[in-house]
Amino acid sequence: MWEEVLLRYLEVDRFDELVQVMLDVASPPLLISHSNGPLGRIVPEAMTQINEALATEAPAEINRIRSELPWHLKDVDLATALLEVGTHSRYCDIPDSVYDPPAADSRVLQRLPSLQDSIDDDGLVDCVGLSPGERELVVGHDAVQYHQFLRRGFQSNINDTLLRVLIPVGTREGNQLHLGIDDRRICDVSDLSHLIEEDFWYGPHLTEEWLDDPHAVGRTVHEDPQGEGCLSGYWKFFAYWRMNGDTEKVVQMEEVAGEYEGTVGEYRVLRYLHSIRDIHQHHFIHCDGAVRAYDTQGFEKRKHEEMPPSVPANRYRKVFRVDGQISTNEWSDIVARWFRGNVLATEYLGTMAVVDADG
Predict the structure, then answer these.
(1) pLDDT tens-digit series, residues 144-184
(2) CB 249 within 8 A of CB 331
(3) Cα 270 off chain centre by
(4) How far apart are CA 122 and CA 44, in angstroms?
(5) What is the number of alpha carbons within 13 Å of residue 53 lying toward its C-beta?
(6) Cβ(63)–Cβ(23) under 8 Å?
């Protein structure tokens, strides 16, 4: 609705340019009135055009528009308010292309064609020779945003606390780091600014003895007692451990979102993690994070299954991978930060209880 209203007063080309730059520099509509960098030019130009068009509008129509604005914008300059609400849908909508590898004709690969050589079979960028930062991948003078599913709640700021752990571990000598990028977003490094979001993580680490015990396998399930309508947003958390031969201990982890979390377009999106531990070397040798997306029918079946599920996801996208030597503390930090916001995951990190496959 509000996009249509805004486009009555703002040219389509200018609107498209505005939203694209907002995406490039990760500046949400909420901050539209505090824009700097390239938006510091585009926003004032857009406001001028809107105000000129509003000046020809009937007072009754102006009053009607104001009356329908969200409560926090009713006393804000009308052009500013329209820019905020009118760009929200386009900025926040997540296209289906996020499940696919970076496209050869995407904005990022058109500007940085050499980056194509670094993309692996999972659509991740091999970071060897590149400069991964905790909020963006820097390639020369360009800043490439990380994948949409590496954002908090899939839409907010980049989960930089996860990247602060992944990058030192993955770029350590002998290790390998692969990260997902957003092929829609690119800008000059100098145009990028950052918001700071912090929260609190708690819980002790799993013990080396438990992790290296080949008999400590099976399924652990943590559930919110409030059920699917839980206010925490996450209903269940699964960890399924198994041995692969006599050396590798494999874990699969997946969350089940509650009623108020994890909806992206037509899908319910669940975070998933897969890791391999060498129990004789006493460290992890592989860790990757992905999302599994289910349509309404698939999610209805998935949420009542255990781990591993038999219901296949409709869409799947891996967003990071680390190979090499990963300590127990580093691994548990990655788990906590990948499942950031899910208290059941951090609860799991604080317990040694494992339920066997029949329990």
Answers:
(1) 999 999 988 787 788 888 999 999 999 999 999 999 999 99
(2) no
(3) 11
(4) 41
(5) 16
(6) no
The 3-class SS string of the chain reads CHHHHHCCCCCHHHHHHHHHHHHHCCCCHHHHHHCCCCHHHHHHHHHHHHHHHHCCCCHHHHHHHHHHCCHHHCCCCHHHHHHHHHHHHHHHCCCHHHHCCCCCCCHHHHHCHHHHHHECCCCCEECCCCEECCCEEEECCEEEEECHHHEHHHCCCECHHHHHHHHHHHCCCCCEEEECEEEEEEEEHHHCCCCCCCCCCCCCCCCHHHHCCCCCCEEEEEECCCHHHCCCCEEEEEEEEEEECCCEEEEEEEEEECCCCCEECCEEEEEEEEEEEECCCCEEEEEEEEEEEECHHHHHHHCCCCCCCCCCCCEEEEEEEEEEEECHHHHHHHHHHHCCCCHHHHHHHCCCCCECCCC
Please tell me the pTM assigned to this model. Answer: 0.79
Residues 120, 101: Cα–Cα separation, whole Å:
9
Domain ranges in the chain are 2-92, 96-191, 208-349
Closest CA to 112 of 167, 16, 24, 183: 183
The radius of gyration computed from the CA coordinates of the chain, to the nearest angstrom, equals: 23
What pLDDT, in 10s, does the model give residues 233-273?
788 888 889 999 999 999 999 998 877 777 888 898 999 99
